[in-house]
Design brief:
The complex is a heterodimer of chains A (376) and B (303). By secondary structure, chain A is α+β, with helices and mostly antiparallel strands. Chain A has a 6-stranded mixed sheet with strand order 6-7-8-3-9-10, sandwiched between helices. In chain A, helix 2 packs parallel to helix 4 and helix 3 packs across helix 4. Chain A contains 9 helices and 20 strands. The two termini of chain A are 34 Å apart. Chain A has 2 domains: 230 residues, Rossmann fold; 132 residues, OB fold (Dihydrolipoamide Acetyltransferase, E2P). The radius of gyration of chain A is 25 Å and the shape is elongated. With 303 residues, chain B is an all-alpha fold. Chain B has a domain of 198 residues: MetI-like fold (Orthogonal Bundle). Chain B is built from 13 helices and 2 strands. Chain B has a two-stranded antiparallel ribbon. The chains are: A alpha+beta (376), B mainly alpha (303). The interface between A and B is medium-sized, with 25 and 17 residues.
């Protein structure tokens, strides 16, 4: 992916309050030209408000939004170099596909011949060739979304804003559109800014993700960093599934660290965490990074956990719940201390799911680079 | 789906039992009297209280005299102007209610509906009290006039002449104003319901694609509110066309509408056959309007 590194959108200390409710709380971030930027967060976190402020439908209570070097404070939506694909698609129901896609060009007085060419080109881009005369009510949701995409792309905006673009599609179509959107963005080279509450969408499409919580940026990072190096408990929990245990930092050196978690046991990490010694911290452990063993395989467990000192990165428990999901099986295990931990295990052979069942006693271990220590 | 309530075709007796009462009611109190009046229109007076239905077309012939044709045309013009003004005033009102905060909407709608629940006669007289030569509108205008006069004296100019009340009542202006006042709710409610159904993101999409507010209004809002506009126009135009009380009370000698002429035939002139003929011409005119509208909406559905 080629990326020019200049910011195309600069958000500077932007806040938005509706009466007493603060929807966006002093957010500053840069969106770079040509990137696929995703605003991810639970509903009501302020991500859509931020997107609507970029589009110009809401005005910031405080702060500044700069698009392509120009302050947008006094620029109305119809004069901004951005276009939006709405969650409801907002395809004009009284116009056919051609008129919908050509609407913006007609409004800005582009010549008829050019409109025809650019509309045809845009429809080709979103694979809607042959649908020119269809009315919106004769099309499926997925097709209407393509109309909305073409209608925005035909304007050749500097930035394309997408509000929950995949939320109304069924699961198969959503997976396909995730690829298509990434592809499209690569092809047209326009900066995409997408809002979503769906972490799969964010992880699969984004070049960078800003996780928004309660109007603030919880973390801004590429998808893999977000998942593997979450900055806090909110991000660890919101992006993917995670086990979180409270503990005390007992060792913290540049190349190793240890945490004592009453609920889980002694945790050893093969890198430092730069937190104050004795501090209250949280350890996050992803379900797929925990290995399950039958208790009799004690030696094997110890051998597997040899990257940590004896008695570290091990736990025992009883399986209290399991759900077979086809590719993986998810286990709910009660630890000896009483707390629950979730472990997922890939079904590498057709019979793997038969290895463990309810009320089985099991041992667990994880590698020294798997746990993440969170300070907040 | 085989429930007894689903298909009345297979349950003829219960259906007939339920439907016979309203059919009987309509036949006895609507179809029969209208049929009698329709027959009268082909008759002539045979005595002070006796009408002979002779099949004559004289009544209709008389209705084509310029005197009556001109009143028909004038009624159309007044009704059309009323409808147009209602549309011009009602559209922003409908938009305002649609875009108002949800907690305010029921109250604003109530404000539109409230005059509905007040007797038309009382409302008309109240409006007349306001518009009379000694009414509050004239008093207000007189106050402004005197204020302007006083301002002129301040800058050393001659004061204005004494205020002479404006004749607001008993003319065509008063009739149109009264009709607009009475019919505005009929226009606002269908407009509101059409605008309320309009997805607001369509308006935002239009703005987003570079259209200003006026272009968005003309290209998106008006076409999509068209069913509401047509419904509002019909529901305003038809009663305005047959308006009786407003021109009778607020109009002058030259502002009578067709309903006033019809009333005079039935009462003072005691010419029921001619009154009946004029009535049915008015009804036919309304039928034509309704036919046009349903043809248009069928065409929209087919497209």
């Amino acid at each position: 992916m080629t990326q020019a590194k200049q910011p195309i959108i600069q958000i500077r200390n932007v806040s938005k309050r509706f009466g007493k409710v603060t929807a966006v709380d002093n957010i500053s971030l840069d969106i770079l030209a040509g990137e696929f930027f995703v605003l991810l967060g639970p509903s009501g976190c302020g991500k859509t408000t931020l997107l609507r402020m970029i589009a110009g439908f809401e005005m910031p209570t405080e702060g500044q939004i700069i698009i392509d070097g120009q302050d947008m404070s006094l620029v109305p939506p119809n004069k901004r170099p951005v276009n939006m694909v709405f969650q409801s698609y907002a395809v004009f129901p009284h116009m056919n596909v051609t008129d919908n896609v050509g609407y913006g060009l007609r409004i800005s007085g582009v010549s008829k011949g050019e409109i025809r060419d650019r509309v045809a080109e845009a429809l080709e881009l979103v694979k809607l060739g042959g649908f020119e005369d269809r009315m919106p009510d004769q099309m499926s949701g997925g097709q209407r979304q393509r109309v909305a995409l073409a209608r925005s792309l035909v304007m050749r905006p500097k930035v394309l804003l997408l509000d929950e673009p995949l939320s109304a599609l069924d699961a198969k179509l959503r997976a396909q559109m995730q690829f298509e959107l990434s592809d499209l963005q690569d092809k047209v080279g326009i900066t995409f800014v997408t809002v979503t509450h769906d972490q799969d969408e964010a992880l699969s499409m984004a070049s960078r993700v800003a996780v928004i919580n309660k109007g603030e940026v919880a973390q801004l990072a590429p998808p893999a960093d977000l998942y593997e190096y979450p900055a806090n408990r909110f991000v660890a929990d919101f992006v993917g599934s995670v086990n979180i245990f409270e503990g005390k930092l007992t060792l913290d050196e540049p190349d190793k660290a240890a945490v004592d978690c009453p609920g889980l046991g002694k945790i050893y990490l093969n890198h430092g965490v730069t937190g104050p010694h004795g501090a209250d911290v949280w350890v996050a452990l992803r379900p797929e990074k925990i290995y399950l063993h039958v208790p009799g395989e004690g030696k094997a467990v110890r051998a597997a956990a040899q990257d940590a000192p004896d008695g570290h990165n091990l736990a025992r428990g009883t399986i209290k719940g399991m759900s077979y999901l086809g590719d993986i099986t998810l286990y709910e295990i009660q630890l000896e201390g009483g707390q629950m931990i979730r472990v997922s295990r890939p079904n590498l052979s057709r019979h793997d799911q038969e290895d463990f069942t309810w009320d089985d006693k099991v041992s667990m271990h994880w590698r020294a680079d798997s746990p993440v220590v969170l300070l907040s | 789906m085989s429930g007894a309530l689903q298909d009345w075709k297979s349950q003829k007796k219960p259906f007939a039992a339920v439907v016979s009462a309203p059919v009987f009611w309509l036949a006895l109190f609507f179809v029969a009297p209208m049929a009698i009046v329709w027959l009268y229109s082909f008759g002539q007076n045979a005595g002070p209280a006796d009408i002979e239905i002779s099949g004559t077309l004289d009544n209709y012939k008389r209705a084509t005299e310029w005197l009556y044709v001109s009143i028909f045309l004038k009624s159309f013009a007044v009704a059309a102007l009323t409808t147009l003004l209602c549309l011009i005033i009602g559209f922003p009102v409908g938009m305002a209610i649609t875009f108002a905060a949800p907690k305010w909407r029921p109250w604003l709608l109530l404000g539109i509906m409230l005059p509905f629940w007040t007797n038309l006669l009382i409302r008309t007289y109240a409006l007349m009290a306001l518009m009379g030569s000694n009414g509050y509108m004239n008093k207000g205008l007189g106050g402004l006039w005197e204020g302007a006069s006083w301002l002129r004296t301040l800058v050393g100019m001659q004061p204005l002449e004494a205020w002479t009340p404006v004749q607001l009542l008993y003319n065509n202006f008063a009739v149109v104003l009264g009709l607009v006042y009475v019919h505005l709710p009929f226009m606002v409610l269908p407009l509101y319901s059409a605008l309320d159904r309009l997805d607001k993101s369509l308006i935002e999409a239009s703005l987003d694609l570079g259209a200003g507010h006026f272009k968005t209004f003309m290209q998106i809002v008006v076409p999509l509110a068209a069913p509401g506009i047509v419904a509002g126009v019909m529901i305003t135009l038809i009663p305005a066309l047959g308006a009786y009380l407003t021109p009778d009370l607020m109009g002058g000698t030259d502002s009578q509408m067709i309903a006033n002429v019809i009333e005079r035939q039935f009462k003072r002139a005691n010419d029921w056959p001619f009154g009946a003929a004029l009535s049915f011409l008015l009804i036919y005119a309304m039928f034509i309007l309704i036919a046009f509208q349903s043809m248009r909406s069928n065409k929209v559905k087919a497209a």
